């Protein structure tokens, strides 16, 4: 699928005219227009921000099976972005193309493997385009481009993990994103196509939340949606456990929150765990400590 040329300079010129709306400490920008999709991102900044501040960022990609979800869900994405501003971060939540919306095969076992890979590719491209927009406008947005934490939930986590760790596999024009870099990863019930693409050169401090009985996105290494080999959608993915093992081998920081018996509810934003998550990022991303943590709990029998 060919990508339109994104005119970043044009977007910068129209910032003051049409591309953002202020609401307290929130601004909304258009980062790309692709066909009929106008892709936006919401920037939440701390209320006490000073003119010369340059702050770390959580850049978030929502879940929804590549067919639903929104960047500005008040109880999830927006609440998360507002939370990180209390920790001295800028919270950015993006929209992206929902390529499986309205399709006959959805994103399960009837969706052909080639279509799944193309969906992953385009999600990674959208995420990298949003990151490039943020990077190109770092001065106006007052962000520190060396401290961008890539985060996402479920489908969003898949898009993020593939964008961060499998850029060389999915992206044809790597030169276009040569200035884009990440400092950490925050994945909720996510997976990537091949964890062998995580190397000493690209490994980052990574937070992983996942249930061992996730029926959609594999906890370790297994087929996506646990499709049988004869199904069109049979595609092996490497989930949080496999990613953590790889990071452990590379002596890279990680925080694995493993719920024995947990299912795909681990894709929900864990608001009661966020203080621990950002303590990890503050130590590893902001202060270069190496920390490897596994938190293992057992799901209560009466939980859904």
Automatic annotation (TrEMBL):
Molecular-function GO terms, alphabetical: hydrolase activity
Record domain BD-FAE-like: where: 41-158
UniProt xrefs under SUPFAM superfamilies: alpha/beta-Hydrolases (SSF53474)
Pfam families associated with the record: BD-FAE
Cell division found in the keyword field: no
Keyword check for Hydrolase: yes
Coiled-coil segments on the chain, per record: none
Gene3D superfamilies: alpha/beta hydrolase
Keyword tags: Hydrolase
Signal peptide: none
Domain of life: Bacteria
Protein name: Alpha/beta hydrolase
Lineage: Bacteria, Pseudomonadati, Bacteroidota, Flavobacteriia, Flavobacteriales
